Amino acid sequence: MNSDEERNWDNFLLEVSAKRQEQGMTHKDLADNAGTVERTISRLLSEPTKNPSLFLVLCIDQDEV
Predict the structure, then answer these.
(1) What predicted TM-score, i.e. pTM, was given to this entire model?
(2) How far apart are CA 4 and CA 42, in angstroms?
């Protein structure tokens, strides 16, 4: 990823995390909505990877946390 992509990815994760907290959702709630497991969400938000599955990102984004 180039620096712009990394910045966009970091901003996306911050937005997801903020919306999750605003709505009182747990990592498990978000994982259930995205069709994945809590550990995946927890790891993604606390130890961001630079190459998550596109499917997971789309599921999280579609849920509009």
Answers:
(1) 0.66
(2) 24
